[in-house]
Amino acid sequence: MRIASTQYQATMVNALQNANARLSNVMEQMASGQRILLPSDDPVATLRLSRLNREEAALNQYRDNIGALSTRLTQNETALGGMVQDMLGARDLLLWAGNGGNTPADLSAMAGSLSALRDSLLYSSNQRDQEGHYLFSGTATDTATVSYNGTAPVGTRYTFTGNTGSQQVVVGEGVTQSANSTLSGMAQLLNWLDSAVATLQTPGVDVSNPATRLQLTTALNGLDSTLSDVNGQIAALGGARNILDTLDTNHSHVSVSNQQAMLALSQLDYGEAATRLSGFTTAVQATQKAYAKVSSLSLFDIL
Amino acid sequence: MSMINNALSGTMAAQAALNLTSQNVANVMTPGYTRQGILLTSASSSRTGALAAGDGVNTPSLFRFSDDYKSQQMWNAASNQGQYSVVQPYQTQLEQVMGDDGSTLNTGLDAFFSALNAASVEPSSSPLRQQVISAADALAQRFNSLNQVLSAQRASVQQQRGTLVDQVNSLSAEIAKLNDRISGASATGTSTSSLVDERDNKIDSLAALVGVSVVNQPDGSRSVSLRNGEPLVAGSLAAQMSVQTSASGVQSLAVKFASQTFNVANTHAGGQLGGLGDFETRVLTPLTQSISDMASQISSQVNAQLAAGFTQAGTAGSALFVYNASSVSGMLQITPGVQPKDLGFSSSATLPGDSGNLLKVIDLKNQAISVTSLGSVLMGDAYTQLVSRLGTESQQNQASLTVANTVRTYAQSNWQSTSGVNKDEEAINLVQYQQMYQANMKVISVANQLFDSTLALLP
Question: Which of B90, B189, B336, B437 is the most buried (most CB within 10 A)?
Answer without folding.
Answer: B90
